[in-house]
Amino acid sequence: MASSRYSFPSKPTANPKAIVTGGKGCSHYRFTVLTDRLIRYEWSEDGGFEDRVSTFALFRHFDPPTYVVVETKGGLEIITDHFHLTYDKKKFSSEGLSVKVGGDVWRYNGESYGDLGGTARTLDGAYGRVNLEPGVLSRKAYAVLDDSKSMLFDHQGWIATREPGRVDGYVFAYNGDHKAAIKDFYRISGRQAVLPRWALGNWWSRYHDYTASEYLEVMDHFKCEGIPLTTAVVDMAWHLVNIPPKYGSGWTGYTWNRDLFPDPDGFMKELHKRNLKVTLNDHPADGIRAYEDQYEAVAKALHHDTSKEEPIQFDCTDRQFLDAYFDVLKLTLEKQGVDFWWIDWQQGTKTKIPGIDPLWVLNHYHYLTSKRSLKTLQRPLTFSRYAGAGSHRYPIGFSGDTQITWAGLEFQPEFTATASNIGYGWWSHDIGGHWAGVRSNQLAVRWVQLGCFSPIMRLHSTNSLWNSKEPWNFEKDAHKIMKDFLILRHRLIPFLYTMNIRASYESEPLIQPMYWNHPDAAEAYTVPTQYYFGPDLLVAPVTSPDSATTLMGGVRAWLPPGRGRYIDLFHPHLVYDGGRYMHLHRGLAQMPVLAPEGTILPLDSTPKLANGAPRPTEITILLVVGKDAQFELVEEPEKESQHHHHSSSDDDDAVQQTPLSSFVRTPITWSQAEGVLTIGPEWNGSGRWRQWTVKLVGHTSTDVQAQVPGFRVTREDGCTTVALGNVHRWEPEGFEIALGRDLQLDVVDVEGRVFDMLHRCEMMYEDKDPVWDAVARSGDAVQERVERLQKLKVDASLKNAVMEIWAADGRAKGSAKGHEVWADTKGGAIEGIEEVLKDYVIV
């Protein structure tokens, strides 16, 4: 096994036709024109340059683009259609090396630059916001990734260090074409790995001294609640923690605590019986000490003298130690039932060899070693912290110990989205927050809602008598909502697995900042907590407490133009015209998840969801009518484990890729004009029957007649559901359902919606009348009534909640679209009132 741990695809030596090099004496340079928008720059005193793999760069052999070199005795220029490099042939300096891109000029300064942010190693100790390392995207026309200090791998796949003093970096000259920049980032660094289906479900984790029976009891309670799980995380109390002081601290440990887990093999067998994967926490820094069960076995492998009970020091720069760590210590535990490891490295970036970061070593070799567990895992996997550019190859990321504060929640969606700016798509956060802060039903619910629409959904909390995330430990309403969102997370797995394949094969992370799809829209850069979840869904999580008046949480969102109208999947009574900001308000049971016209979202609608993540036998298609739509449902190959030994192309990542052609695929298309939904045919599948249902979200206004035998139509909560029954998945031409030509989203009933909302508001009864009068007195011009509403001495959040409904749908009778004015709920001026009032038209 050890040999495959040191083997991964790479092609680090650049195409000679892309290289411009020269120099003399004590100054030598090399430029590699990787694409017409991406250039590598290198300088050395000794004339040597780096062709080994770095933690960032695995692949540097690209077909050379068209470029021009202009060379004089004292200078050099390299010109492509997108950048113009100027260099004085001396040691790199801000005066001597520059790259002009569009209207911006980068001058060398030895630092990375990407002002849209990337991510960070950890959220440990963060009250809210933390400083982000740069990504490779920028508001300027360029971004820079300085790779001069990164760790290397030699030709045998072992760690190596750089020659000191050499400069090595990359200029990304993409001028706002963010997606193209990320695609080329992945071309150099390797694509995102594909996750196994089960990793996309609910994980349970708690830092707590569980006994085996207690832990299994919690798992069984989840089952009784009807909440499915896939992953059982056992934090550090699985091993001995209270050890004799002569051995040091108990943070590191590999010996089961038999007082808590008298039969570890039996305990993990019981978890597996419940269809759960098992991961154990490992703080490896203190090595293997004399009290450990495996001390003698590891010592024997390393020829370590045990007579004085000297500890076996953790040393990731020693290949023999690493082999014993994996192939003696960890393999023994894996044979007992451990499926994968949660690496909890918190001890900094230093090792015996300068420039070698232990976190990088742990992530890289744990991930590759996990290939020996493919029979269980289906895909290689580790669970650890972010180490820097290139870390996306080793999912899944653990973001650290978040404080339980509203500020911590508010930063998390931004932190997750900007991680995509450095290609890092699979963060797992402590959902609900880890430690400190306050107990709050509202905060817990809003965090679980965010978790449902996060890359990984892992409930977690610290070692506290009072702090745990079991939904049934919260008040009745909060309990039900948390349960509903945890169930929804598993219903989303067909969509999430498809996005998982898209992330790897199409360089499109699941979560993307708004500006990825709208780089030229200034508004896209002003909504950091809002993000794309897949190609269509806009998620704007509520990250602040609910208003005491409206009993709703509010969030400012931007609805991009060009996608038609939007419907909220949780609140389909409201339809929004795009191309503007909106303030969205939702009660605790809902969060804003907006889908534009022409959206298809497949959900697992199996009545009782089980642990694990089996392929669904029943699927409900959420369809947003109004525009043509298409979605290709992708599922793993019928025999996943057979597909890990195909030869890989030069661009493959650290594990050889399954050919895309081997995945099971089911196209789903909607023709708006014809009103026909087509499901299938399924490719590469076994052709089993599957039950399909179609739910028209936000459409109830026509008498849908599905032309299939035995269909059943129901209408409720602003949706029309058409149950189609069993459909064979190998219908040769697919399966067509005619639902009605040119169906449209329902028109918002402004007065009805405002009345319902105002009725629920907790406020003085007499104060409701003037609010209602402003909306419902149709004899007055909309402008006058909007102004009257804004002058009322009522809660600002109430004004905005009224405004949202009133202005949502321009088709609605008496709509205030074009007249929307938003009160500042933080107590400042009204947002945009002067701007809006000057454009009023009397109606």
UniProtKB/TrEMBL annotation:
Enzyme class, broadest EC rank: hydrolase
An example Gene Ontology molecular-function term: alpha-1,4-glucosidase activity
Signal peptide positions on this chain: none
Domain of life: Eukaryota
Catalytic activity: Hydrolysis of terminal, non-reducing (1->4)-linked alpha-D-glucose residues with release of alpha-D-glucose
PANTHER family, alphabetized: ALPHA-GLUCOSIDASE, ALPHA-XYLOSIDASE
Region named Disordered: 634-656
Gene3D superfamilies: Glycosidases
Record's keyword annotation contains Cytoplasm: no
UniProt keyword Protein transport present: no
EC number(s) given by UniProt: 3.2.1.20
Domain called Glycoside hydrolase family 31 TIM barrel: residue spans: 193-499
Biological process, per Gene Ontology: carbohydrate metabolic process; N-glycan processing
Keywords: Glycosidase, Hydrolase
Family assignment from sequence similarity: Belongs to the glycosyl hydrolase 31 family.
Residue span, Glycosyl hydrolase family 31 C-terminal domain: 508-601
Protein name: alpha-glucosidase
UniProt xrefs under InterPro entries: GH, Glyco_hydro_31_C, Glyco_hydro_31_TIM
Organism: Parachaetomium inaequale
